[in-house]
Fold:
Amino acid sequence: MRTFFAIAVAVSLFVTPLHAAPLAMLRTGLEEKVVEHTLKNGLKLLMVERHTSPTVAAWIRFRVGSVDERSDERGIAHLLEHMLFKGTTTLGTTNYAAEKPLLDSIEQAGQSLIAEKAKRDKADAVRVTELTQQLSKLEAEAGRYVVKDEFFELYSKNGGVGYNAFTSRDGTTYLISLPSNKLELWAAIESDRMQNAVLREFYTERSVVMEERRRSYDSDPESKLWETFLASSYLAHPYGQPTIGWMSDIENLTRTKAERFFHDYYGPQSAIVAIVGDIDTAATIALVERYFGAIPPGKKPAPVTTIEPKQAGERRIEVVAESEPTLLLGFHKPAISAADDYVFDVVSTVLGHGRTSRLYKKLVLESQIATDVSVFDAPGSRFPNLLVFNSNPRAPHTIREVEQVILAELERLKKEPVSERELQRVLNGIDFEEARRMGTNGGLARNLTEYEALTGSWRYMSEYRRKVAAVTPADIQRVARTYFTQENRMVGFIATKGAENK
Structure:
């Protein structure tokens, strides 16, 4: 697997392992250890005391992702992820009062430039040049007041590690681990950012994102295949749109749009905070109330009401590139809260997780017609998604050979009951992976925020193993016969120009 598909697994919520709940944690009373507190403004606080080390993990998950963007906002959630590291009215600047008029002038020039370029072939080339130069000059002037990476420096000087963020179709998360006696610093910084974020260097950062798009998507054959595959899988639902946005989307984003999106949706009404580690629960509640309690709530994104029409026949897409051949095979399936989603988790583990899985043995170890194989959910979990099979043929074998082996294994699922030994291996994998992940403060904080956001309750993970254990061989056969059909199938592949890959 190349890096991109590893990332694809990550942003689809680490599907099978992350859905699990470790027996070790449940036996020590996870239900009793998690303390919930909801502020009057809607912020949800989840806490777990762990006094094994004087550290704490603090995660903030916003129930806002790229799936919540309107058509003229595509890419804005991802760009905001970048922008929210730029500071506030007091952090990231030496003199906000002097900086503010320049930021306003930058926005005026930026919007004028976008409007002129929108005229396309009728745009005034001289005007475009003038506005571009004006924008560059204003940004340079405003740059004199910018203090780079002040959030990072503050956290780093106070022992913070792992300061990061990520945006997916389903949500946006900011995370940090730090000494427990520095938790008030976290509260001061993050509450300030929630209220007073300044999107400085907006058009400079937008150019950075555009370069990211060119380098990591437009110029990378596997990424291009992935985007095309998803766009072809979703004709109506916004899951088909890339989180980073298409290039024309990014080019037309303005700071005004981003500020509106931020102030509307990134408030306490959308926030889930998990604090795990060496804390006193009552003191932590008081701390969060003191710093976040007075922040007024904003809006919740409008519900995504679009339902993807049922696929009526196989869709095959091809990307021609000078690259190693790659195969994607996908089937539409239900969202995370559906009963059949647990069955799909069992299926994906049996078929493609680990060296003992059926497809790894068939494709990589025995026939050696592929270099690797993986099975994962994508592109999100809040709404009906895809079960995706990804594999790279080993020369001189072809994509068609790999595809036929995968399809044969899917047919086998329909006809032959999965053995009890394989089902036990699924449960063993759940216990191992989740005990490993949730043994860390950050791992537990991640799971708490993710499941609270996706399913409405972190308790999903407490129930997960029991529901997976209840999956029967007959359930697997039923799901396989229902969903693994030609009509419900998406096929995407990379082919070298002129090669016989089809």
In short: The first helix runs from residue 3 to 11.
